[in-house]
Write a structure and sequence with these properties.
Elements lengths: L12 H4 L12 E8 L6 E2 L7 E3 L4 H10 L4 E7 L16 H12 L3 E6 L29 H8 L5 H18 L3 E4 L6 H11 L8 E6 L6 H7 L19 H12 L4 E5 L5 H10 L4 E5 L1 H12 L5 H15 L3 E4 L2 H8 L1
Parallel strand pairs: 1-3, 1-4, 1-10, 4-5, 5-6, 7-8, 8-9, 9-10
Antiparallel strand pairs: 2-3
The structure holds ligand PBG.
The site of ligand PBG has 12 residues, from helix 7.
Length: 342
């Protein structure tokens, strides 16, 4: 039969590579690294096989392991030695992220992105200062009592008070040597606050990778174990985006662009590829997608049962995220996939 169109003509072994539309490269990948000031040895994270929390003393060694796979950039998350209602260890000059960043910058060639949020630093686990009346947890408390649960129903993070703490934290991360600041708290106006503060402090060339469209997602579960950042009561639906909304994400992104965001991030990645695609279409900025802890954990769990081929689904996941329009991918698979690429 004479068929004009036979798409499979381009699928032969010698030709398919030539017409392949999407490439994954180690330079597209950013590996999350957890630095924990409460431990003096590496601690495995059970729900994220292959990942650990490392003490500050091991941060350089951990980053070197990442770099050996070909991945050049890490995003650092910190677990502080102590927590309080404001999360003040987030902007301490001798804070866990500041110490780790200084060392990694001094002793490796890695590019360091610092996550800027307070949920790992506040006693109540929310991403900022709580409004008066729902302060909930006293210093070090868990707020898991019944009154706190009631407070959680009406819980609001005080947006503008949190912006002041974001400013302090951004400067302290910049001063420690961060190459990119990545605010993830979803406070309104956070990009403008950081940009203004960094510029005033002489860091006008330091880029901001904004978690611009960050959803209130159940896929963050394993991360919250890893970074000890689960809210002690309530949830984050008053500040993170409703999973039902895509147009709202575009508005969030537009606001961050107006405020000077340099890179636009979507998070999580796989359940939100429509949002990645839409941002790619509408904006010319680099787009990043965060392939989050739950996306990692579910593939591992299925592979452990023998139901999926881990290496293949990890690669396909990252390829899909790029195909949707992401330039950069933050992923716990960074090292494994990078190793496979060469
Ligand atoms: C901090 C933050 C979170 C993640 C990255 N930064 C948790 C959250 O918002 O609850 C999640 C990352 C992951 O699940 O891999 N706000």
């Amino acid at each position: 039969m004479n068929l004009t169109h036979r798409p499979r003509r381009l699928r032969g072994d010698g030709v398919r590579g030539m017409v392949s539309e999407t490439d994954l490269d180690a330079s597209d990948l950013i590996a999350p690294v957890f630095v924990d000031a409460t431990t003096d040895e590496r601690v495995e994270i059970p729900s994220m096989p292959g990942h650990e929390r490392v003490p500050v003393e091991e941060a350089v060694a951990r980053v070197e392991e990442v770099r050996e796979t070909g991945v050049e950039t890490v995003i650092l998350f910190g677990v502080p030695e102590s927590k309080d209602p404001d999360g003040s260890r987030a902007w301490a000059d001798d804070g866990v992220i500041q110490r780790a960043t200084r060392r990694v910058k001094a002793e490796t060639d890695a590019t360091v992105v610092t996550d800027l949020c307070f949920c790992e630093y506040t006693a109540h686990g929310h991403c900022g200062v709580l409004e008066d009346g729902v302060r909930g947890a006293p210093n070090g408390g868990t707020a898991a009592d019944s009154s706190a649960t009631a407070a959680g129903d009406h819980l609001t993070v005080d947006n503008d008070a949190t912006l002041e703490n974001i400013r302090k934290t951004a400067v302290s991360q910049a001063e420690a040597g961060a190459d990119v600041i990545a605010p993830s708290g979803m406070m309104d106006g956070q990009v403008a606050a950081i940009r203004e503060t960094l510029d005033d402090a002489g860091h006008e060339n330091l880029p901001i990778m904004s978690y611009a469209a960050k959803y209130e997602s159940a896929f963050y579960g394993p991360f919250r174990d890893a970074a000890d950042g689960a809210p002690a009561f309530g949830d984050r639906r008053h500040y993170q985006i409703d999973p039902a909304n895509a147009r709202e994400a575009m508005r969030e992104v537009e606001l961050d662009v107006e405020q000077g965001a340099d890179v636009l991030m979507v998070k999580p990645a796989l359940p939100y590829l429509d949002v990645v695609r839409e941002i790619r279409r509408e904006f010319d900025h680099p787009v990043a997608a965060y392939n989050v802890s739950g996306e990692y954990a579910m593939l591992h769990a299925a592979a452990e049962k023998g139901w999926l081929d881990l290496e293949a689904v990890a690669y396909e996941s990252l390829l899909s995220i790029k195909r949707a329009g992401a330039d950069l991918i933050l992923t716990y698979f960074a090292e494994d996939v990078a190793e496979r690429l060469h």
